[in-house]
Amino acid sequence: MGYPDDQLARGEEVKLHTRPHWKEGVGPVLWFVVFLAIGAIAVTYTTRIDESWAIWLVLAEVVIFLVLLIWLSVIPWIRWRSTHYVITDQRIMWREGLVTRESRHIPLARVNTVSYTQNVWERIFGFGDMNIDSASDDGEINLVDVPRVDKTKALLYQLAEDDRSRRAGDSADGA
User: Fold this and answer.
1) Quick one: DSSP state of residue 133?
2) Distance in angstroms (rounded) separating the CA atoms of residues 156 and 113
3) What would the DSSP string read from start to end of 69-107?
4) Which residues sit opposite 95 in a β-bridge?
5) What are the structural domain ranges in the chain?
6) Over the chain, what is the mean pLDDT?
7) For the stretch 102-132, what's the b/e string if a residue is b when 16 or more beta carbons lie within 10 angstroms of its beta carbon?
8) Which residue has the higher pLDDT, 174 or 117?
9) Start and end of every YdbS-like PH domain (predicted)?
10) Rounded distance, CA 52 to CA 18, Å?
11) Which secondary structure element, helix H or strand E, spans residue 117, and what is its range?
12) Confidence band (pLDDT; 50, 70, 90) for 105?
């Protein structure tokens, strides 16, 4: 059982589970291909040198390219893959990180306003940044590069309204 299933309350149902838009994963893949190609070319030309110190130059190139590969490709890819945006019928959950994890949960009953921003580029590719303001001490949660942000906002409002109706019905039954 993985995230978010291991975090759900009894009877809680996941309505949306996504991560930031796929464009966040494109950059790390491109960097990976570029550094692999440049590294292979550099090592190929360096091995043609007939000097005794050439092996040290090859070793230095490999180390430099591995560091750049990890820094600009592997770490951003892992960060993208380990970021989760989850909306259930009871709350909103956001989690990121693999080693050091950060997580926030906001009950739907505490959602005050939901807004999003999109520039032209984001509208073309169907993503945007969403701000969810809550009536809690945590204030607001900012979700970056949410896919189909307009549909996600509509879903969130519908779930919040359903939650309010359910709570009003529960309190009327208990009175």
Assistant:
1) E
2) 10
3) HIIIIIHHHHHHHT-EEEEESSEEEEEE-SSS-EEEEEE
4) 84, 103
5) 25-79, 84-174
6) 86
7) eebbbebebbeebebebeeebeeeebbbbeb
8) 117
9) 80-154
10) 53
11) strand 111-117
12) confident
Distance CA(65)–CA(125), nearest Å, equals 32
Q: Given this model, what pLDDT does residue 119 score? A: 93
For residue 1, pLDDT over 50 is answered with no
Average pLDDT, integer, range 114-141: 87
In 3D space, the residue among 122, 124, 116, 125 whose CA is nearest the CA of residue 152 turns out to be 116
| pLDDT reported for residue 172 | 65
Q: Calculate helix-pair angle for 23-46, 54-69, nearest 10 degrees.
A: 180
Distance CA 141, CA 126 (A): 20
- Domain 84-174 coded CATH 2.30.29.30: yes
Angstrom distance (rounded) from CA 126 to CA 155? 16
